[in-house]
């Protein structure tokens, strides 16, 4: 009898494909959902098919664009079949929605490829963008802005809820065609583009109430702006989702793009060649919106409409389409994806949080720090998926590179560093490396919380939950730690003495266990 | 119905525990074997219990040592149970074998902990060390040297086979006690140690035929020497297994240790505090053996007796206890462990090897390079286990950090870099970073083979094996590539044109597909 894990995993899991037939690009996202409630991005593939190109005032998707769409969808369909997709969602957005021949084009695509698409209304498109954002970023109030090729959706969030929305027929492709590349558009194009957008925004009476809120940027234009900025400032973290781009820097990028011919733009680090022609219109729209709303800047979301479609499906049977605790859910998901031994992780979390609570008079930290410690403890062994040897360093790598949703970048770096502290690690160069993200005092925070994870890990070295309870008495010069154990924990405590050597340095007191326990 | 992947994996897999009751330390290795033929190190745990300490000329394991052994075995047993070990192998080596009360001590341990141990004969210990090495390093001829706490095993390998062996009752613990720490051992201790060992070696007539061979170093002493040296030269790769330590550097480390009191040794980077007292005896023994055999140096093996016990069990039903193609087997194992989509990996390997063969007149590479290319192609997607986004960089990380057996460190770095080339990567800083391992010409080798993996990956972008055959015609200025396809591969070829932009630079010719294919 010979099983194959990957095959078994396939059998017990479901692969969901979502194709977004957009005005600029056609994209497929494959998500795998496990029967244990986990989910992960399996793969993504995109093709800049530009079906919204040259639609003209007659609003007709032209035959070459249809041909490109058919070939692309065929490729994506083949890719989906090769990856054993169980459920496929096809959605079509602005170009198809606004075209007079949209329905016919979808019929052609269906006849040629076998895949059917649902045209999203402006409201639906806005809602899916919102679902993509609200399930992956810890937003409370903000203005979600999804700039596509043929439309822009604006969604006002209050207390994580979608309270107002709009879908405007202006995207990076048609704004470029109408204002920046048409014969005779001349130098006044940008001004006309901005004034056209401002008039549209002025008609949205509710937009006034978004004044001063952070923008939550969705779509290729937004991601490109984020990538360009990250390259410019040599940003230390390799994650785009959650990246914050202040207004001033958007304006600077916009100025840079304005003064460059398209050919030259193709060499801007962070910008793809295929977007070089339409990025200026997108950037100008963002810049104008920031000014219009008086917003401090944009937080880039790597998740949008496709992820929204996925989450609606995923949470279908559950508590509703928006999860309450994004970070908590993401941590649980990571524990499944990286096959963390749950019992041990829970025990390390329990013991380190118990230490945290009992040492509060020394460190003075509060609920924010406590939450980060809990996450770090639960995830401290994720690195085992790479290799057991030096796995604390692999944990660091995973947490700094895989996207833990619902945390700010600073929180991500803190959780990664605290989790890595359970094994040997040189903190100093890492604290320097992420100095652009960390804040004053974060070094001592990492050392203080890191040592708690390390102590808890050592106290559960046998992974059998031998220590049931820890009681600390804080004296003038030392912390006396008593264990209630279910078995002899002498070796665990000796391991702890051996491995935890700088408690005194970070807490200003020595720790000690009663002699008879060692 | 709710499955749990980790649980299902547990059900479909077996966890094997191997405890080695050695003179210096007691170590447990947990290996997980999958029903798909894969295996991985789950965890390791050790405790320096020193049961061989103070045995004295009466060769009795003393009560404090028995007490330490019982407590340690109890911890390891608890750890094993927490990890659901299915099969446990306990082996006892030199200290127990040579002690007059060895059998009683094992009985005590069994009564107190429930775990039973088998005493290995010198021949068995030698054979397991050999099995550990031969299954994880691509050795042909060499002298395996396993220095333990209470004995040293020497095994001559010819053509990967164990042809001669010896087990000598000298290890780092008893050599220290007998020559270096006894009252009045004075300054002549090292000379006496060496002369004692040399007399023993001279009695092994077959050892003469090992003259000039590489030593394959097993055990804690060897690993420590490797770690100290790596720290001293700031070695770039974070893998110990397969690390080569030239004779001259062993002598230098030995000199360093000789001139230092034990307390000071505890601060040598790479050396654990617990080994500081016995490392000099071990290092002196290695240094003397290198001189005795005229060997160029030691290749450190991270695998030894415990892994040998595992491989005997693992290959039990298979082709015999030593695998022929260590690297090939390890690559297959990685494909299972990191859940590579096998069909796509095989297609990328097929296409890149086909390109390699057809371009041989341009690159002039041979079977060694071809083999590395094949491995890189099969492993190019391992990084997906971390995250799909930028997964080529995660592939690089995994291949540089997880232990791909049977490859030299140079080969490991080459395979990792070639595999990473299928996505965006800045090669220059990486080639510099691993400059201490790479050789002249390796930069162009990486670029040339990397681009083949990238082309093959692009030609299978839909992962559906659409390209059945590739035929290249090499002209003066260009390479014309024709595809035999089972479907429209136009988008794949366009992806290839878009992503592969420096073929001309590394091969001195442009590539082109027939217009009608694009």
Automatic annotation (TrEMBL), chains A, B:
Family annotation (SUPFAM superfamilies): Actin-like ATPase domain, HD-domain/PDEase-like
Record flagged with keyword Hydrolase: yes
Ppx/GppA phosphatase N-terminal domain segment(s): 36-313
Keywords assigned: Hydrolase
MF (Gene Ontology): pyrophosphatase activity
Pfam families, A to Z: Ppx-GppA, Ppx-GppA_III
Domain Ppx/GppA phosphatase C-terminal: 329-471
Keyword Repeat: no
InterPro entries: ATPase_NBD, GppA/Ppx_hydrolase, HD/PDEase_dom, Ppx_GppA_C, Ppx_GppA_N, PyroPPase_GppA_Ppx
Family statement: Belongs to the GppA/Ppx family.
Protein's UniProt name: Exopolyphosphatase
């Amino acid at each position: 009898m010979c099983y194959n894990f990957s095959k078994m995993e396939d059998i017990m899991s479901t692969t969901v494909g979502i194709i977004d037939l957009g005005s600029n690009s056609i994209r497929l996202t494959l998500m795998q959902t496990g029967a244990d409630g986990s989910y992960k991005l399996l793969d993504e593939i995109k093709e800049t098919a530009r079906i919204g190109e040259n639609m003209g005032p007659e609003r007709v998707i032209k035959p070459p664009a249809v041909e490109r769409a058919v070939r692309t969808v065929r490729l994506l369909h083949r890719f989906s079949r090769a990856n054993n997709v169980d459920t496929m969602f096809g959605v079509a957005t602005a170009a198809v929605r606004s075209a007079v021949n949209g329905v016919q084009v979808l019929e052609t695509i269906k006849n040629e490829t076998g895949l059917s698409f649902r045209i999203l209304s402006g409201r639906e498109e806005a809602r899916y963008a919102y679902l993509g954002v609200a399930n992956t970023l810890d937003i409370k109030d903000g203005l979600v802005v999804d700039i596509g090729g043929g439309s822009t959706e604006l969604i006002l969030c209050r207390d994580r809820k979608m309270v107002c929305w709009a879908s405007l027929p202006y995207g990076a492709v048609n704004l470029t065609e109408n204002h920046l590349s048409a014969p005779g558009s001349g130098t006044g194009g940008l001004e006309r583009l901005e004034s056209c957008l401002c008039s549209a925004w002025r008609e949205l009476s509710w937009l006034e109430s978004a004044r001063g809120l952070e923008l939550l940027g969705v779509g290729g234009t937004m991601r490109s702006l984020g990538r360009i900025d990250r390259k410019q400032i040599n940003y230390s973290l390799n994650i785009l989702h959650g990246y914050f781009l202040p207004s001033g820097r958007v304006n600077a990028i916009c100025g840079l793009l304005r003064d460059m011919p398209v050919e030259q733009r193709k060499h801007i680090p962070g910008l793809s060649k295929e977007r070089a022609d339409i990025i200026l219109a997108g950037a100008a729209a963002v810049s104008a919106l920031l000014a219009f709303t008086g917003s401090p800047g944009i937080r880039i979301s790597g998740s949008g409409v496709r992820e929204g479609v996925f989450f609606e499906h995923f949470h279908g049977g559950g508590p509703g389409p928006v999860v309450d605790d994004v970070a908590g859910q993401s941590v649980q998901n990571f524990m499944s994806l990286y096959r963390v031994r749950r019992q041990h992780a829970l025990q390390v979390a329990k013991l380190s949080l118990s230490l945290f609570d009992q040492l509060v008079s020394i460190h003075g930290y509060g609920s924010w720090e406590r939450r980060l410690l809990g996450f770090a403890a639960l995830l401290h062994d994720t690195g085992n998926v790479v290799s057991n040897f030096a796995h604390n360093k692999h944990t660091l790598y995973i947490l700094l590179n895989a996207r833990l949703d619902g945390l700010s970048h600073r929180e991500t770096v803190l959780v990664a560093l605290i989790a890595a502290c359970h094994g040997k690690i040189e903190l100093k160069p890492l604290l320097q490396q992420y100095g652009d993200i960390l804040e004053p005092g974060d070094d001592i925070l990492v050392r203080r919380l890191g040592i708690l994870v390390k102590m808890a890990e050592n106290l559960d070295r046998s992974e059998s939950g031998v220590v049931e309870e820890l009681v600390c008495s804080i004296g003038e010069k030392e912390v006396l730690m008593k264990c209630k154990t279910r078995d002899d924990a002498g070796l665990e405590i000796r391991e702890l003495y051996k491995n935890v050597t700088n408690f005194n340095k970070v807490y200003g007191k020595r720790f000690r266990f009663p002699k008879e326990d060692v």
